[in-house]
Design brief:
Length: 154
């Protein structure tokens, strides 16, 4: 049984609206659940969430510490969510807060050596499981990204 086709039949039977949109949303949701589950298992080995890993990767690429607002914007998180995520990373000693020399009200954050090590290890393991997208080719993953971009950028 094809779960997407079965879902499509159910949506049609219940007159759920434009079937092509409902079917696409169902496929996107199921695919996201499967990919997230595969990544969550790997990230749990390091007591990380995907949002935390995103922040670590963003900080690892920066030669200078980032302010909380900059960091939230960079990973598309609300400033409050970014601050809570950074606080958890700080408790794990994966990041360090740094006072801004020009403005004491601004707190900046940088990745620690421990954070860099866990980032490299977690990324290596995620590559091993194909970020939960093992069934897709490189061309397909690029196509998927471009298809989803308008939803994300909206």
């Amino acid at each position: 049984m094809d779960p997407l086709e079965e879902g499509r039949r159910n949506w049609l039977a219940h007159d759920s609206g434009p079937v092509h949109q409902v079917s696409a949303a169902t496929a996107l949701t199921r695919g996201q659940q499967i990919a997230t589950s595969a990544m969550a298992r790997v990230l749990a080995e390091h007591d990380l969430t995907f949002a935390q890993l995103e922040i670590l990767v963003r900080l690892a690429d920066r030669p200078a510490p980032l302010g909380m607002g900059e960091l939230g914007d960079a990973v598309k998180l609300h400033p409050t969510t970014a601050a809570r995520t950074v606080a958890r990373l700080e408790r794990a000693r994966y990041v360090e807060r740094v006072d801004d020399e020009d403005d004491r009200r601004v707190t900046r954050v940088r990745v620690s050596e421990r954070g860099l090590a866990v980032t490299r290890t977690a990324l290596g393991r995620l590559r091993e499981v194909g970020f939960g997208l093992d069934g897709l080719s490189r061309v397909d993953t690029r196509r998927l990204t471009e298809l989803v971009r308008p939803i994300i950028d909206d």
